[in-house]
Amino acid sequence: AQSVTQPDIHITVSEGASLELRCNYSYGATPYLFWYVQSPGQGLQLLLKYFSGDTLVQGIKGFEAEFKRSQSSFNLRKPSVHWSDAAEYFCAVGQRPGGYNKLIFGAGTRLAVHP
Amino acid sequence: IAGITQAPTSQILAAGRRMTLRCTQDMRHNAMYWYRQDLGLGLRLIHYSNTAGTTGKGEVPDGYSVSRANTDDFPLTLASAVPSQTSVYFCASSEDGTSGSHEQFFGPGTRLTVL
Lengths: 115, 115
What we know:
heterodimer; A: four-stranded antiparallel sheet; B: seven-stranded mixed sheet
């Protein structure tokens, strides 16, 4: 069965520090991969996605993620965190064509940013 | 362009009562989805619809029903609410329901409390 694991429930970083949020997935083939961000009291916004090609993908707000097939990982990174990045981050995996568009979400990582 | 609207924003409901959560999108997307978000569990798919007139069950469909009479609206009904249905409910849509490649756009959510 497909699954997504985000090992870190909470992460706290200082403003200006670098950030890496971990995501591991379980899927039989190369999946579609997504990172979403949820600000307090808001819906989810797509940060970036990977379908194929270059394994390093760039997203909005200065975020990037790298797909590593050998590690079944899709970690999210940002070189310098801003206070406005404090939010909850969700990794998700989507099925390839042929199945309905089901997204499996991880449990989320809540990011706190210290000034 | 509003995107996806959900109503109500929040609701407190007595157990055993019937409740319909409303969802409307103005993007002419074919596919729509209902998720529930619970602490530590991320988002879980309740029901989905790949196109108007069709619906399907997600991971946690029990106690919920949906209909898709037209492209824009996708209401979620709790026929007889129970406390375990206390959650935040998100409606989402995507251009295509049969390919995992399309981004899902999320509404702002409905916070439901069942007492």
